[in-house]
């Protein structure tokens, strides 16, 4: 009798089980990798945010640098122009008279000394917020009485120098002179004295309570 070969029929249940296990392992691995990548991205994003915050804090702490540079530049400019006007008050007063400004001699001297003293105090950073007020007024008067006569539109106005100087003092009025100034040193000295007296008072109060 011829030898009959047995046909091999795979066990489908076993195959299905192995396929399911393989698919399960693969999906788990993909999910794990995806979560791991997302976690790494999240950590990197957090580091970037923290680095940005730290950078902004350092820039804010260094805000005294632009204040110092602005003070030195604008202060020297007005001290120099004021000094020149003080030593040529007659000519300056004649210009005031030509511009139609009342009491030209008095106002010319007032403007010249305001620029000179204001510029010197700006360089030193002494009473910066108080000094900024007359300097802003001086620029506004110059704009209204002299410069606006030659202004025909917004393009002409933004090309004037006086508004920029006025805005510089507006910024110094709100920002202050910075710590590298007379105002900054006085502020530190006052704070030190206040906290020292407060610590002494607290120590005395504690000693009284323990008696």
Radius of gyration: 38 Å
**Spans of at least 5 consecutive residues with low confidence:** 1-27, 29-36
Average of the residue pLDDT scores: 82
Order of helices and strands: HHHHHHHH
> Portion of residues in helices?
over 70%
Coarse shape: flat
Number of strands: 0
Binned strand content: under 5%
Q: Report the biggest beta sheet as strand number plus sense, adding barrel if it closes.
A: none
Tally of individual helices: 8
Query: Whole-Å distance between the termini?
Result: 121 Å
Structural class label: mainly alpha
Q: What report would you give on this structure?
A:
By secondary structure, the protein is mainly alpha-helical. Among the domains are: 30-61; 64-178, no CATH class. Helix content is 81%, strand content 0%. It is built from 8 helices and no strands. α3 (89-98) crosses α4 (104-124). It is flat and about 70 Å long. Mean pLDDT is 82; it is low at 1-27 and 29-36.
List the helices and strands and how they pair.
Blueprint: H1 12-61, H2 64-86, H3 89-98, H4 104-124, H5 128-145, H6 154-158, H7 162-175, H8 182-210
Helix pairs in contact: 2-4, 2-7, 3-4, 4-5, 5-7
Q: How do you describe this structure in short?
A:
The protein has helices at 12-61, 64-86, 89-98, 104-124, 128-145, 154-158, 162-175, 182-210. It is mostly helical.
Descriptors for this entry?
single chain; 211 residues; mainly alpha; disordered N terminus
């Amino acid at each position: 009798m011829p030898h009959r070969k047995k046909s091999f029929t795979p066990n489908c249940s076993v195959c299905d089980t192995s396929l399911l296990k393989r698919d399960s392992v693969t999906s788990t691995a993909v999910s794990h990798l995806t979560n791991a990548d997302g976690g790494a991205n999240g950590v990197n994003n957090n580091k970037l945010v923290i680095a940005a915050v730290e950078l902004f804090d350092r820039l804010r702490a260094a805000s005294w640098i632009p204040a110092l540079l602005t003070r030195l530049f604008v202060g020297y400019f007005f001290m120099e122009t004021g000094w020149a006007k003080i030593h040529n008050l007659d000519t300056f007063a004649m210009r005031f008279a030509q511009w139609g400004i009342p009491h030209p001699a008095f106002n010319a001297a007032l403007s010249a000394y305001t620029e000179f003293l204001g510029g010197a105090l700006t360089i030193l950073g002494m009473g910066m917020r108080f000094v900024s007020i007359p300097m802003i007024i001086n620029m506004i008067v110059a704009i209204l009485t002299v410069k606006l006569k030659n202004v025909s539109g917004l393009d002409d106005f933004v090309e004037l120098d006086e508004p920029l100087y006025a805005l510089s003092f507006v910024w110094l009025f709100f920002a202050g002179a910075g710590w590298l100034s007379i105002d900054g040193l006085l502020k530190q000295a006052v704070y030190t004295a206040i906290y020292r007296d407060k610590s002494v008072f607290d120590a005395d109060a504690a000693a009284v309570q323990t008696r």
